Amino acid sequence: MAALPDAVRRGDAATYQEVTCRSALNRVEGMPFKWTLNPYRGCTHGCHYCFARRYQTQLELGAGDEFSSIIFVKTNLLEVLRRELARASWMREQVALGTATDPYQPIEGQYRLTRGALQAFCDARTPVGVVTKGPMAVRDRDVLAELGRRTSCTVCFSVPSVDEGAWHSLEPGTAHPMQRLRAVRQLVDAGVRAGVLMAPLVPGITTNRAGLERTVKAAADHGAAFIGANLLHLQGGTRDHFLSFLAGQYPHLLPKYSRLYPGKYARKEYASQVYGMLKAIQQRYRLNDRQFAKDSDAEKTGGDATASAAPEQVVFSWR
Q1: How far, in Å, are 5, 39, 59, 185 from residue 71 at the CA level?
Q2: Residue 317 domain-assigned?
Q3: What is the rounded distance in angstroms from the CA atom of residue 76 to the CA atom of residue 113?
């Protein structure tokens, strides 16, 4: 397929800029994995809570609309990646895809960089974890399944909530939550280890008990191999953008957020309350027979996924 010109606007109104990269794999610290890969930079999903918005400032771009309207495509990614994987020093450590931008946002349909990267990892027997909101992942179920047979492969679909109001306001450019869950089912049926991350849980918007239960039940009904969660965290440009979003859409929440988020993470007692409630719901739907996990950021808040909580407890009630 012919590549796009250096800069062009598609039907989604985003500008796509072709760039080259000096390295494909990025070393990280303090995470359950040591390496990340991001074929694209910026994301048309435009989720208002996305932590990666703050990285745009490194390119002298804003963390607001420019994050979802100016997308960089690393056209030489596959060549560089295969060269890195062929090094004698490569230890086949786990690589995470989708940590800073969705590898299955719509432009992947043209460039197919994510699929090419998965094939390279499969050839190099390198374990991979994918985080996405894109049902397009189903297209690659053949290589994902083969990767799982040769080493290990996990696909995590981010589904913070199945509530349509929350979806419309928080994730304006994403596929419907139920479409993502249907993709989970298709991948599981194809032999891929796929599950759900309720990430992030947004206080006051997606943390009520009824909403949490609907989402957990939907994940269970669609055969999720696991379910995980983490609370919203706010830092740098992401914080500025999200608070501006709240001011326009949920102004009544602003005073509560100023108390709940004195820094990057929500207060520990609130985190414990949310994770405790979620654990109780998870047990009800027997997802404890599979797996329940919260990511490293959740652990830093002090939240305990094994804490007990009364089912009727109202989560959004800090002072």
Answers
A1: 13, 11, 12, 30
A2: no
A3: 9
Phi, psi of 73 (to 5 degrees): -115, 120
| Total residues found in the chain within this entry | 319
Asked if residue 214 is part of any domain, the answer here is yes
Q: Is the dihedral of CA 315, 297, 188, 38 positive or negative?
A: positive
SS3 27: strand
For the chain, how many structural domains are there in total?
Answer: 1
For all residues of the chain together, what is the average pLDDT?
84
Confidence of residue 26 (pLDDT cuts 50, 70, 90): very high
CA dist 123 → 119, 146, 149, 171 (Å)? 6, 10, 12, 35
Range of the domain at 293: 7-301
The Cα 36–Cα 25 span in angstroms is 6
CATH code (residue 69): 3.20.20.70
Does residue 231 lie in a domain region?
yes
**The whole model's pTM is what?**
0.84
Name 40's bridge partners. 73
Is the pLDDT assigned to residue 66 strictly greater than 70? no
Q: What is the pLDDT of residues 179-232, one digit of tens each?
A: 999 999 999 999 999 999 999 999 999 999 999 999 999 999 999 999 999 999
pLDDT for the residue 70: 81
Query: What DSSP state is assigned to residue 316?
Result: S
- Asked whether residue 311 is domain-assigned, the answer is no
Residue 11 has pLDDT above 50, yes or no: no
